Amino acid sequence: MSDATFGMGFGFGGVLGSALEAFGPLCVGIDPHDFLLEEWGLPSSAAGVREFGLRAVDAAAGRAGIVKPQVAFFERFGSAGYAALEEVLRAARTAGLITIADAKRGDIDTSLAGYTEAWLTPGSPLEADAVTINPFQGVGSLESAMEYAADNGKGIFVLAATSNPEAAGLQSARVASVTVSRAIIDGVSAFNAGRAGEGPIGSIGVVLGATVDFTALGVDVHTPHSPALPVLAPGFGHQGAKATDVRRLFGALAPFTLVSESRSLLQAGPRGLATAIDARAAELRAALG
Ligand SMILES: O=C(O)c1cc(=O)[nH]c(=O)n1[C@@H]1O[C@H](COP(=O)(O)O)[C@@H](O)[C@H]1O
């Protein structure tokens, strides 16, 4: 998806809103693990991840609104892996899918600008619609990246409360009077509020794992944000959370929560993936009413 203006507002928030309306919240993770490549009858090579990614895009197109290629599985093959990822991202965007490059980048602001340029510049070889960012160097270090994204009709998902169990100790620690997770969410929400004129849905979102104990992490899912805060939610499927629990888990944030699943869908194999996506999308439609 490349147009910056949609009925639900401008920029990435608007694009996301249209996709949620048309397809619901399912985000298909494209994670070519070696065990999946083997199950799909593909080699563990750049050619293998390229074929895997393109087949996953074909299966998702017209069935889900969003795909999230996991950059790590392409990066392990060096420049050939990156060439494969470029093709997969291009194919997905051409098919009308929103692409979230799961690259988990982060650095001081000037270096982060290089990463943002790589992933979020219209016309760049690795162009995606959004990228995941790790805020360990402080939410303040993300300011110019968030501005760059919003100025270019792009999005960012900032890790805030991640789905892996090892994260809770660090992310529940307190900065001033709130938890790290809460401080990150507040920082992102404040950025979106500063550009509230652009539409009802913000262009910068957060990653909140579906497996997380939000109370322990001081994350408030009951109060809506204005503009709405997009949430990328991994942790469904293989990591244990049930897609149909999205409303119970995410409360007021549920209407803007992307339900991300990788292995649990991809294990259906190249021939079963389209059916698995259809089934999960239908389950989510029923659960969200
Ligand atoms: O940013 C992510 O997508 C992410 C954040 C997080 O907190 N937990 C998490 O699992 N992820 C990613 O989401 C995907 C989860 O894959 P499955 O567990 O197979 O659905 C992987 O690509 C992870 O790197």
Automatic annotation (TrEMBL):
Matches recorded under SMART domains: OMPdecase
Broad class of enzyme this protein falls into: lyase
Entries under InterPro entries matching the protein: Aldolase_TIM, OMPdecase_type-2, OMPdeCOase_dom, RibuloseP-bd_barrel
Query: Which Gene3D superfamilies does this chain map to?
Result: Aldolase class I
Q: In which pathway does it act?
A: Pyrimidine metabolism; UMP biosynthesis via de novo pathway; UMP from orotate: step 2/2
> What reaction is this protein's catalytic activity?
orotidine 5'-phosphate + H(+) = UMP + CO2
State the UniProt keywords alphabetically.
Decarboxylase, Lyase, Pyrimidine biosynthesis
- What's one Pfam family the UniProt record gives for this protein? OMPdecase
Documented EC number(s): 4.1.1.23
> Which family does the similarity line name?
Belongs to the OMP decarboxylase family. Type 2 subfamily.
Query: PANTHER family attached here?
Result: OROTIDINE 5'-PHOSPHATE DECARBOXYLASE
The protein here is known as Orotidine-5'-phosphate decarboxylase
